[in-house]
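User: Can you recover a sequence for this backbone? Please restate the input before giving your answer.

Assistant: Of course. Working from this structure:
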């Protein structure tokens, strides 16, 4: 189990750095935000993926399969967005209003929710507006052709109505 634990702790940025072409590195960095958000589950042993989809309450809207964290759509200068990508693929980025960080894993397509140390780069307060998951559509990525009848407006985005108990119990949606 130690090998698996060590593997899950590895950062993705050094893996990207192994590619000599800068365009490939940039592409892998950008593609890292299309991801499956989960937590480590030490009770699951290989060959099963040692992950769980039981996300902390404040981040459950990121669950249920792949999501797009949309960092490219953040309202920040390009150099700040680049720093967020780099932090996300190394030590992780802190989620405002929580004690958690998001860190992209070397395990393809996986991002882990971990306890933040407090030294990570902080996502902007409106970061949820750029996220798209099966349960959530951020307001900055909600296209006019999307049928929002199955969703409820909860501030930074639209939460699928069958997820509304999450919003009622979670501080992440309060302004």
């Amino acid at each position: 189990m130690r090998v698996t634990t060590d593997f899950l702790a590895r950062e993705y940025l050094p893996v990207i750095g192994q590619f000599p072409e800068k365009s490939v590195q940039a592409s892998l960095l950008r593609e890292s935000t299309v991801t499956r958000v989960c937590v480590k589950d030490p009770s699951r042993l290989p060959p099963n993926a040692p992950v769980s989809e039981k996300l902390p309450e404040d981040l459950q809207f990121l669950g249920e399969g792949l999501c797009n964290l949309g960092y490219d759509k953040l309202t920040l200068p390009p150099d700040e967005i680049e720093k967020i990508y780099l932090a996300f693929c190394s030590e992780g980025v802190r989620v405002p209003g929580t004690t958690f960080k998001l860190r992209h894993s070397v395990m393809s397509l996986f991002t882990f929710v971990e306890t933040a140390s407090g030294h990570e780069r902080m996502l902007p307060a409106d970061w949820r507006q750029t996220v798209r998951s099966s349960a959530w559509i951020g307001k900055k990525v909600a296209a006019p052709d999307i049928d929002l009848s199955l969703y409820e407006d909860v501030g930074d985005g639209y939460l699928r109505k069958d997820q509304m108990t999450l919003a009622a119990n979670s501080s992440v949606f309060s302004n």
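That completes the design. Confidence is low (pLDDT under 50) at residues 1-5.
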